[in-house]
Amino acid sequence: MPLSKPRLAKDLNRRIPPSHRSDLAGVLIPEVELQKRIATMGRAIARDYAGRDVLVVSLLSGTVLFLADLLRRLPFPLRVDFLGVSSYGAGTESGNLVFNKELKLDVRGAHVLVVDDILDTGKTLRAVTDRIAALRPASIRTCVLLDKKERRVGTFEADYVGFRIPNLFVVGYGLDFAERYRNLPFVGVLKPEVYAPGPVQPKRGSA
Ligand code: XMP
What we know:
By secondary structure, the chain is of the alpha/beta class.
C-alpha cells in the first residue's frame, strides 16, 4: 500500500492544444492537477524524511519535469544523483534493461528515494532497487508520478504514487514516445495509430 493515497486519473479531457490534435487522443492529467498533487507528495515526503541524510536518485530521462517540480517541494537538505536505464524492446513494451549511467555519489548509509516517471510492469524499479540495495544504503523507498497498476508483473508497489492511471500509453511532462513529447506541460494520451500504425492503404487509382 503506498504511503500517500494516489489520485485516480481516468477521464480524458479533449481540450488538446491545436499543435498536438493530430497525435494526442486527449489530456489525462492537466498541468494544474499535476502541480497540486506534487505539492501534496512533497509534503508527505518532507514529513517522512526530515532530519535524515537523503539521496534522491532519479531515473533518466522521463523524470526530468517531475523531478524539477518535486525537488522544489522538498524543503530540507538533500543530495541528487541520476541513474540511466534503457529498455530495449519493441515499440511501447519494456524489453531488456541496460544501465547506461551509473551513480556518482556514495550511497552507503544514505536514505535513498528513487524517483521515476511511471511504474508499469515493475521490472525497471525492481532492477534499480536491487542494484541500489547492493550499495548498502540505510533505506530505499520509491516515488512515481504515475502507476499503471493493472500492468504489473509480480507484486512491486511504489511508496509514493502521484496518480493511478488506466492502461493507456501516455506522453508529456517528461514522458516520451521515440524521444518526442517530453516538453508538454500535461500528461496526454497518444493516439494508438501514432505508436502502432496500421498497414499502409494503397492509394486510390494506384496500380
Ligand atoms: P516497467 O514496465 O519496467 O516500465 O515498470 C517502466 C518504464 O517504462 C516506460 N513506460 C512508459 N513510457 N509512456 C511512456 O512514455 C507510458 O505509458 C509508459 N509505460 C511505461 C517508462 O520509461 C518507465 O520508466
